[in-house]
UniProtKB/TrEMBL annotation, chains A, B:
It holds the Pfam family HAD. Keywords: Hydrolase, Magnesium, Metal-binding, Signal. It comes from Thalassotalea mangrovi. This is Haloacid dehalogenase-like hydrolase. Residues 1-24 form the signal peptide. The keyword rRNA-binding does not apply. The keyword Repeat does not apply. It comes from the Bacteria. GO terms for molecular function: hydrolase activity; metal ion binding. The lineage of its organism: Bacteria, Pseudomonadati, Pseudomonadota, Gammaproteobacteria, Alteromonadales. InterPro entries: HAD-like_SerB, HAD-like_sf, HAD_sf.
Length: 331, 331
């Protein structure tokens, strides 16, 4: 027991040394502006013994994905997956040649194909359901390792934001547990989030399809994906998703659109000091510049709210000004 | 970077030493019978480099709660909480004096009060909804720290199984992540699971009521609990709950009733070697003896299935024979 205690204390000593080491070299891709200073000042306050100290188990940080951890233009990457998937499986569905929206997808007429919520739902269900979880995971894995972005030619997993990868490392080095809280599909994200962000499946919260447990005669058993929505993890759904999956109010929340506003408000309404960070897409040269008028990642109410509440600890990150680098270097 | 790498490697070295230390003194309350030997043999196989090795991130262990981690007789402890809660709040509800099932609850006539699913639902909703998450957590905290078991006089948190607490420690020392997957209420469990089992809120899966996000004029924001069921995490619901919360098929699953059968079958149907453990309540002297005929923790189909599949790695724990101790010592 005594030996164990000695081992455990050196274990703790070394882990604290490790985090100090990492903290010393944190956030190299961030310019030394207010945004970076507010973030690091907050983390120092909650990790140092003293008035603002927060015990490690309560250091929960939540991140939206599309537009916050990776890019979302010219269309949500998961929608690109859905469209590619329809093309790849069209031989099994001759009926698509005459059925909308599939007909337009196969003809490359995205304007018609994506012209209504009904159409998009049909495209998503046709590409995301009617198979087991394991089959779906394999399909996503195959796509994510080969598909490339239409504008940059990069793999989608190289369209992640280098400064945000550094924030994830920095927060974990300071004892935070990092979660994705996305309007995107939970099972789509879980396939690659661990490898790309270091976030395991059990720390991914997202939109879900209905599922059914299937027991085979031979003793096999799997989860089958249904063509129906079980939960939409967006807007007011995000605080609910956080409560159901995490069960604690976050200490820090990152987002980029109006769909994240409720999550950031929920976070900031918790006891003690909290931090809400909005990534503002202002960088037309290195990425995209969009906010109020954009259909993807609409940032209007949230932009007003964050501007109004800067004094209350809301941070508005100006991509063009606050980030030295946007995307990671690729070999 | 180099300094960091040295620190990290010693970090890993020491954590492996720690787990070895713990493994050496594991499971003291378990008799040295087949059950204990099969469990430790399995854990050694998946943790030692070699054919059966499983990387740490995939070492997921799931545990039912009622009847598996703590007792469930003479009634589910959460139902005792609900009944106590009604008595404690009756002054605010004069209408209960004439309304069933509340009238019978207050008169101490449990036979009538609990005579139908409708009645039980009314009792649960009246005691578990119509308040914010924070309010509910406080109510549960107050109850769990003071209420005592009618037969033993112990606090309910002292009605946990010492051999199972040792299994939780043993598996965590061997790199497993431990989750509760309960038919009970997720928010009821999360209040005390971390202190009692070392399982944080984000690793608790359970039955949920519907919730609503509420934003106040003053900027306050909370999750309100509704009087409706959102998800029942029992029977075929358990594999779904595991998939939605954890996103990986468990390597080990523990249960005690037919409500856990689907979870254990789902676990065993995964690739490679897996382990399913059923706790059989055979100890009338130290605890309770019940299975096929019991309304609480009915163990009939599961008992047949586990007996039939012993050769496939299903373990049937005989409480009376396999456990030296049932409950922890209390100061």
């Amino acid at each position: 027991m005594n030996a164990k205690r000695i081992l455990l204390s050196s274990f703790l000593l070394i882990s604290s040394l490790c985090s100090t080491t990492l903290v010393a070299q944190d956030l190299p891709s961030w310019s030394n502006t207010d945004a970076r200073q507010q973030l690091t000042a907050f983390v120092e306050t909650v990790t140092k013994e003293g008035a603002g100290f927060v015990e490690q188990s309560k250091r929960i940080a939540v991140f939206d994905n599309d537009g916050t951890l990776w890019a979302e233009q010219p269309m949500y990457f998961q929608l690109a997956f859905a469209l590619d998937r329809l093309k790849a499986t069209q031989d099994k569905h001759p009926e698509w040649k005459t059925q909308e929206p599939f007909k337009s997808v196969l003809a490359g007429d995205l304007k018609t194909a994506l012209s209504s919520h009904e159409n998009i739902a049909k495209i998503v269900f046709a590409s995301h359901s009617g198979m087991s979880q394991e089959e779906f995971q394999q399909v996503v894995k195959d796509w994510i390792t080969t598909a490339t972005h239409p504008k940059t030619g990069r793999k989608y997993t190289d369209m992640v934001y280098q400064p945000m990868l550094e924030v994830l490392d920095y927060l974990r080095a300071n004892g935070f547990k990092t979660f994705i809280v996305s309007g995107g599909g939970i099972d789509f994200l879980r396939v690659w989030a661990e490898q790309v962000y270091g976030i395991p499946p059990e720390q991914v919260v997202g939109t879900r399809v209905k599922k059914e447990f299937m027991l085979n005669a031979d003793g096999g058993a799997q989860i089958m994906r249904q063509a129906a929505i079980d939960f939409v993890n967006d807007k007011e759904g995000k605080p609910i998703g956080i409560d159901n999956h995490i069960g604690r109010r976050p200490l820090i929340a990152f987002g980029n659109s109006d769909g994240d506003l409720a999550m950031l408000q929920y976070t900031m309404a918790g006891e003690g000091k909290r931090l809400a960070v909005y990534i503002h897409h202002t960088d037309k040269g290195r990425e995209w510049a969009y906010d109020r008028e954009s259909h993807i990642g609409t940032f209007d109410k949230g932009l007003d709210y964050a501007t109004e509440h800067k004094k209350d600890g809301w941070i508005l990150v100006d991509m063009a000004k606050d980030w030295k680098v946007v995307f990671p270097e690729v070999e």
